[in-house]
Design brief:
The protein is of the alpha+beta class. 34% of the residues lie in helices and 35% in strands. It has two domains: 39 residues; 75 residues, Immunoglobulin-like. The strands form two sheets. It has a four-stranded antiparallel beta sheet with strand order 4-3-6-7. Strands 1-2-5 form a three-stranded antiparallel beta sheet. The protein starts with a helix and ends with a strand.
Length: 115
C-alpha cells in the first residue's frame, strides 16, 4: 500500500513538473521572439537635433515621445519606414521613445538624446 501511494505521488509530481516546465518554455519562447523584434527596431540619429527616424517599423503603429518626468510630449501616428518625425521644437535633454504596436502594446522603449 505504501509503495502504491509513493508511486502515485511520484507520478503526480512528475506530471505537475512537466506541465510547469512546458508552460515556462512557451513563455520564454514568446518573450525571446518579442525581444528579438524589439531589438530589430532602431531609432536614429541618436543624438538627434531636428528629427528621428525608425528602421524596421513594419509592426509599429505609433511612436510616443516621453520626457524624463513621464509626461507624453508628442505622439506620432501612421508610422512608415524612412519617414522623419520632427522633434526640433523640443528642448534639449533625454527622452524616452515608446514604440507601440497593435492593440496599444508597447514593443520597446528606447532612450534618445535631443541636442
Amino acid at each position: 500500500m505504501k509503495q502504491t501511494l509513493l508511486l502515485f505521488f511520484l507520478l503526480c509530481g512528475s506530471v505537475m513538473l512537466f506541465s510547469q516546465s512546458a508552460n515556462s518554455f512557451s513563455e520564454r519562447y514568446q518573450l525571446l521572439s518579442q525581444k528579438s523584434k524589439a531589438d530589430l527596431i532602431q531609432i536614429f540619429p541618436n543624438p538627434a537635433t531636428d528629427y528621428i527616424q525608425l528602421s524596421n517599423s513594419e509592426q509599429v503603429t505609433r511612436i510616443a515621445v516621453i520626457n524624463m518626468v513621464g509626461r507624453t510630449i508628442r505622439i506620432f501616428e501612421a508610422i512608415v519606414d524612412q519617414k522623419q518625425y520632427r522633434i526640433s521644437d523640443l528642448p534639449r535633454g533625454m527622452y524616452l521613445v515608446q514604440i507601440i504596436g497593435d492593440k496599444n502594446k508597447i514593443i520597446t522603449t528606447k532612450r534618445v538624446k535631443k541636442q
